[in-house]
Amino acid sequence: MNEPTPPPPPRPTAPPRPASAPSGPPHGPTSGPTSAPRAAGRGGPVAAAGRLLREMLYALTHSSHPAAPLLADAPKRWQRLLPYAVALALTAVLLPVTIQVLTNDYGLSGGIAGAVGAGQALPLLLIAHRPLQAWWVVFPSGVAAATFLVGPLQPGKGIWPWPAPTIVGMLFLLFGLALRERRAALVGVWVVTAVTGLVLGQLEPELSDGTQVLTIVLAGAVLIIGGALRERGEAQRALVEQETISEAERAHRTLLEERTRIARELHDVVAHHMSMITVQADSAPYRIGGLPDAAQEEFASIAASARESLTEMRRLLVVLRSEGTEGERAPQPGLDRIQQLVEATVRAGVPAELSIAAELGPGPGSPAVPQAVDLSAYRIVQEALANVVRHAPGAVTRVSVRPEGPDLLVLVVNGPAPEPTSRVEAKGAGGHGLVGMRERVRLTGGTLDTGPLPDGGFRVAARLPLTASAAAEPPAADRPDEHGEHDEHDEPEQKDASAP
Q1: How many Cα atoms within 13 Å fall on the side-chain side of residue 165?
Q2: 211-287 helix and 433-444 helix, angle to the nearest 10 degrees
């Protein structure tokens, strides 16, 4: 015969192999058709099959789930007890039925039928906890029953090698196994069941009526359905865990964004004071006559340090500012603009009333109010009114700003909404409302109290210290208010209060 000569070794300039070709060393002169499949896996197909076999054997001998029973995390008690009830009912039915079938239909003695029936039915009680261990008892019992039936059973007189009760119990057990074990164990169980059934059928072909093939198909279908349900449940649990993690990350990101925004606003407040220090230090030699040279140098040093601090603050502000945004040129709002804020809320359809102390009335902010407190009070009122517009449109709202002892009391109280409102669009928005209020109160060293009212309204009460020493000492711990970290009013802040 004329056999084709082996192909010569490829040259370095040979065209590359197709993308679908397996990776591996180039074929030499002695390489044959089996070279490519051998290169497909490390060590060749024999080694790959060996690894797969070892994985299946390990999965069959080591349970992958904890000792917690099936449906242990179900919310209702009857759901947690359901696997036990099913296992108990299945055992109570199959035990006498198996003994009766083996005794009457297959002619086994009562002792052998009882032992086989107990070996096949009693382990089903472990379906809820240890289905893999139960399978290691039920399956050998089924094989033993098949061997006992070889003598008494006449061809065509009964199902062989698996009697009907054995098939029913095995299918229930395989379904419980599929709900708990990993895929390698399920494949191993199916392979062992299929190979054993086929071997028994070949050993006694005159007794076999093809039932073992049907059993193989049913076992595969049950394992596939149970495995799909298990993987679907695992995917849902993983999704819930991921949503929980994402929600925590969103809350943390919201907190950081609000703190960054507060830092940008504080830049304007601090920059004003630093600018005043610079101007006063530079003009001191001209405003105060007869200063010695040492005093003039000290003032010059103070002015230089203040200018350097301003430069560093501007550099920090560039880092804090979001990409693509520009610095605000308008002055920061304060108590003098709360009246405009309430008027804009009234135009939006919310009947709001304002009560502000005379010394805090319209005009420039009172010198007794620190600028940080002045800005924080305005932002708290703004965010509270924005939440009223979103969640309780048309609700009667009262805004009160007044000094109370050493503190500034900011109170925003709204009644229930005239009509029920939908909060679907607000769900999951990751709001800044209460987060921003809480951070601003911590900044000034004050306290915040928020929560629903018995009549269905909502209350926001903030105490901000009016003394600079108290404002410079924020609370040591980031504690949530008494109503919790999140609330139904915790919604994104409004940039423009005139357009809620």
Answers
A1: 30
A2: 40
Rounded to whole angstroms, how far apart are CA atoms 276 and 282? Answer: 10
Backbone φ, ψ for residue 400 (5° rounding): -130, 130
Q: From CA 455, how far away is CA 449, in angstroms rounded?
A: 17
Q: Which helix or strand (DSSP H or E) is residue 355 part of?
A: strand 352-356
- Tell me how far apart the alpha carbons of residues 441 and 31 are, in angstroms, rounded to a whole number: 78
Residue 411: predicted pLDDT: 94
Contact status, residue 341 vs residue 382, Cβ threshold 8 Å? yes
DSSP per-residue letters across 283-297: HHHHHSTT--HHHHH
Give CA torsion, residues 111, 113, 119, 120, to 10 deg. Answer: -170
**Residues 6 or more apart whose Cβ sits within 8 Å of residue 85:** none
Give me the count of residues in the chain: 500
**For 68-91, how does the pLDDT look when each residue is reduced to its tens digit (9 = 90+)?**
677 777 778 888 888 889 889 999
**Secondary element (H or E) of residue 373:** helix 371-391
Rounded to two decimals, what is the model's pTM?
A: 0.46
CA geometry: angle at 89 spanning 98 and 231, to 5°? 105
Collapsed DSSP state (helix, strand, coil) of residue 242: helix
As given in the structure block, the two tokens for residue 312 are 């560093």
